[in-house]
Amino acid sequence: MTRIASIEPILARVGIRNQLLVKVITESGIVGWGESGLSAREESVAATIRHFSDFLIGQDSRKISRIWQEIYRSQYFEGGRVLTAAMSAIDIALYDILGKRLEVPVYQLLGGRQRDVIPTFACCTGKSIDDLVDNVRTLVKEGWTSIRINSSGFETVEVFDPRASLTIAAEELTRIRKEFGPGLCLGIDLHHRLSVAETASFCNMMPAGTVDYIEEPIRDESPEAYASLRSLTNIPFAIGEEFSSKWQAVPYLERGLTQYMRIDICNIGGFTEAMKVAGWSETHYVDVMPHNPLGPICTAATVHFSAAVPNFSWLETRQSSVEQLGFHDPDIFPKQVQMDGPVYIVPDGPGLGVEVNEDIIRQQAPAHVEPPHLRRPDGSVTNW
Ligand SMILES: [Mg+2]
User: Fold this and answer.
1) Distance from the CA of 96 to the center of ligand 1, in angstroms?
2) Rounded to the nearest whole angstrom, what is the distance from the C-alpha of residue 262 to the centroid of ligand 1?
3) How far is the CA of 52 from the centre of ligand 1 (A)?
4) Residue ranges of the alpha helices (H) in 57-161?
5) Where are the domains of the chain?
6) Closest by alpha carbon to 25, among 56, 48, 51, 47?
7) CATH architecture for segment(s) 4-107
8) Helix or strand run (H / E) with residue 277
9) β pairing state of 315-317 and 117-124
10) Digits of tens for pLDDT over the chain (384 positions)?
């Protein structure tokens, strides 16, 4: 009765984004939920989940780590973001099932909790510098001591001019630091839009101590490029939300290229892979700073993970008062992890602690979403 009876991807519009959930049911009727993180390419991941279900149905749902190995190594061509996003959702659902079967919260399956609550950093942007600073003020008043901005200079959907945008970003950070002082942990997400040289110039535009970390200034395919950039600035880096396996994380840890590990549990391979990367990060005194840009299943999984790892800084939240994204709709998810000001409360019920209203979510038709295809002023391609 512990065997997997069905695996179903459910793609739905929730708030301003699609969410790709997976529902796994065992022969005894226990339901587990997972979420996949490859935003904007959800259809590909859903097809992959259906493919995996061909050989997973009938398997013992408790053999979670073995199932991870079998999926990863079953197609001869191992790895890749689509495959590991699908694996992540299934792995999370199997942990949800095991927690429900044993009547323990998932964090107990990961070694128990290391902390009482889960501190978060809030994400903050604005239509202008003044608007951004106002939003930071709101968050500080509400208790946040760690804030990551997305510069208003990056909020374009057509043309991205690096020099013009970086000038605005440097001005924003300098103003925020001046107004809120050194007590605030202040980061910026650069959305891997820059070159090595552009990033180095950006770091030199601000007085020392202005920014505590920069997140993903350049793309992650080349650790060598990051090593070059690492030698050009002393500002810590937060890298890793794009990693889809422990093997991608390893050079960044072993070569000292990232100072925070931005694990995305819905992309890297679920709890099974996230715990390994967290452990490898611990050996290098690098704290995890998990990516959490999706819905309540992702948030709950990340909260359980964050509760269980010793080397932890802040968990990303998209639920502060300055963002209205609708990802955590309480009608669709009547039971979900709750916040208390700037911290998540660790749920103590069985499994992940999330309930899904299937009558509603199955009515939420997914939108066809294509992220902005940005170009530089000369017409060439750049990342969103
Ligand atoms: Mg990011």
Assistant:
1) 26
2) 8
3) 29
4) 64-73, 81-102, 106-109, 129-141
5) 4-107, 108-350
6) 56
7) 2-Layer Sandwich (3.30)
8) helix 270-283
9) parallel
10) 999 999 999 999 999 999 999 999 999 999 999 999 999 999 999 999 999 999 999 999 999 999 999 999 998 888 899 999 999 999 999 999 999 999 999 999 999 999 999 999 999 999 999 999 999 999 999 999 999 999 998 988 899 999 999 999 999 999 999 999 999 999 999 999 999 999 999 999 999 999 999 999 999 999 999 999 999 999 999 999 999 999 999 999 999 999 999 999 999 999 999 999 999 999 999 999 999 999 999 999 999 999 999 999 999 999 999 999 999 999 999 999 999 999 999 999 999 999 999 999 999 999 988 889 999 999 999 998
CATH homologous superfamily for the domain 108-350: Enolase-like C-terminal domain (3.20.20.120)
Whole-number Å distance, alpha carbon 341 to ligand 1 midpoint, is 22
| Claim: this prediction has a pTM higher than 0.85 | yes
Where do we find the tokens 């704290």? 287
Residue with tokens 């910026």: 188
Q: How far is the CA of 102 from the centre of ligand 1 (A)?
A: 35
Name residues with Cβ closer than 5 Å to ligand 1, which is an ion: 189
